[in-house]
Structures are given as structure tokens and as C-alpha cells.
Amino acid sequence: MRIIATGLRFPEGPVVLPDGSIVVVEVERGTLSRIRRDGRVEIVANLGGGPNGAALGPDGRIYVCNNGGLSWIRQGPTLRPHLQADTYEGGSIDVVDLATGKFERLYDRCGANRLKGPNDIVFDRQGGFWFTDIGKRREREVDLGFVYWARDDGSEIREVAGGLVTPNGIGLSPNGGTLYVAETIPGRLWAWDVVAPGELRKRAWPALNGATLVAGAGGQTRFDSLAVAASGNICVAALEACAIIEITADGSQVRRHPVPDLQVTNLCFGGSEMRTAFVTLSYEGRLVALDWHEPGLKLNYQS
């Protein structure tokens, strides 16, 4: 493991840029930040709220899921998220121009329903994107979560799956024909067939949310964000399990890769031959690089 940057305030949503630098969100700090190859950290945009997952869009801008803000538990230099922030006004999808740092709010609702806690995002080949809304947790209640699909120009947003329990990581299979979503609290990975942009094939009852259960890690394992390998394996950041959980597409094999942090939150692939996993270790505020045993999947619009 190679440490690229330290002192980050709960990093998430890593994205490898064409010049080899990496952008991350700093959730507690409310920023989109750029990490140069020498480890220097530069603030690109002060987004406020709680920027979470991020993705490079077809126009070269960064699309950010903003959860609207969280309260935090501090233990010395470490951070962990807690409940809905007192300043919370709702979640959104924000779009950032990397050259200028200017950003705009693309979506903050779907029809009459306000976005609660947009969390993670992945683009399809047609320029649309899928994203999860994990909801918010308050002292005595928690929101159900949803999966949405939207166009990158702000013209359309659709609710495609609902009633999930803390949906978090999201990704597409190498051929774009399967959508994966990881639920945090249950530690489950679900899959749907994609039949068209913004359209999923739903299985009949009693399938939960019309999805196929790929795998559940068992034990005290909470899932966060995910990335997909070129082979089709799904690699899920597993928070306090201090690991990346690698799952085959049919769920028949589950492999644990230990990573030393109590809040392993996200990863992306890049580097030579896509064999480097860049992982956000959010409890201690680090971005690290791991040599992966197989190539990662090159995302749509990743140079």
C-alpha cells in the first residue's frame, strides 16, 4: 500500500483524471479536492453540504452526489459520520467545472420528491447516469433509499427502484447490461438487468425491489461504494470490516482483501493497465494506492 495523501477530511468519490491527478470529495469539509502526483491537495470547489460520490461526465466536468450534510463524531484526528446535519436543506446533484471551480445544481428533486442523500454515481454509454439516494438518518428514524437515472443536461430524472435499505455503491457491468447496488446496513449486493437507458427489468415478487441478490457478506459487514473490474468482478468497500470485498458476478465467490482503516469508503481503478486501485480510507483521512491482481474496468468517459 502506498500513501498518496493524508489529512483529508473524510475523503470519498475518487476519480482518476487524464493527467494522472485524482479528485476526491472531502465530505466533512464540503469540497471537491484535487490531489496532485506529489500529494499536494488543492481545493477545486467549495460545494458545501456533504459532497459524496463523484464521476467524470462526457463533457469533462465532475458530477457530484451531494448528500446535503451530516453531523460528525470526532475522535482526536479521526472522523465518522453520524446523523442528518442541523443545517440540512436537502440533497442534490452538483456539476463542477474543473478549470474554473464553478459549479451548478443540476437536480435537487425527482418530480414532487426531494432528493434526500445522493450518494454514489456511474455514467452509462449514452451519457446518462445512475445514482443512489441513501436517505438520511435521524435520532429515531431513517429514510428508505432509492435508485435514480438522469440525463446529464438536466432535462430528465427518473426513479427506477425504491424502498431499499441504505443503497450506497453503484456500478455497471463491463457490457453495461447489469446495474449493481450495494446496501450499507444489510451488507447486500443487488443486481438488475438494464434494458434501456433509465430502464430496469424487474423480477416478479417475492424478489425485493425486483432485484437479484448477488451476495451478502455476513457478519458485521457494512458495504459502502464499489468499483467493477474488467473481469466483471464487483469490488465493494467494506467500512469497519477494514477490507475490500471482491464478489464474482454470479455471487459464487467472495474474497476479502484487508485494508488498514475503520472506514474503507470507496475505490476506483487507474494507473498502468488499470491495475492500480485508489482507495479512500476515510477514518484516518488518507488516499492510498494498491496494486490490484487484475485490471479494473475503464469507466465510460475515463480517458
Contiguous runs where pLDDT drops below 50 for at least 5 residues: none
Structural class: mainly beta
- Which architecture would the CATH scheme give at its second level? 6 Propeller
List the helices and strands in order.
EEEEEEEEEEEEEEEEEEEEEEEEEEEEE
Total helices: the number is 0
CATH superfamily: TolB, C-terminal domain
Count of spatially separate domains: 1
Average pLDDT value?
Answer: 97
How far from one another are the termini?
24 Å
What is the CATH third-level topology name? Neuraminidase
Please report the first level of CATH classification, the CATH class: Mainly Beta
- DSSP strand content: over 45%
Estimate the global geometry from the Cα principal axes.
globular
Number of strands: 29
Q: In percent, how helical is the residue content?
A: under 10%
Largest sheet: 5 strands, antiparallel
Rounded radius of gyration (Å): 17 Å
Structural account:
The protein has a single domain, classed as Neuraminidase. Helices cover 0% and strands 51% of the residues. It has strands at residues 2-5, 11-16, 22-26, 31-35, 41-46, 51-56, 62-66, 70-75, 78-84, 92-96, 103-107, 109-110, 113-114, 118-123, 128-133, 145-151, 157-164, 167-172, 178-183, 188-196, 199-201, 212-216, 226-228, 234-237, 243-247, 254-258, 264-270, 276-281, 286-291. The strands form 8 sheets. Strands 18, 19, 20, 21 and 22 form a 5-stranded antiparallel beta sheet that branches. It has a 4-stranded antiparallel beta sheet with strand order 1-29-28-27, with no helix packed on it. Strands 2-3-4-5 form a 4-stranded antiparallel beta sheet, with no helix packed on it. The chain is globular. The two termini are 24 Å apart. The model has no long low-confidence stretch (mean pLDDT 97).
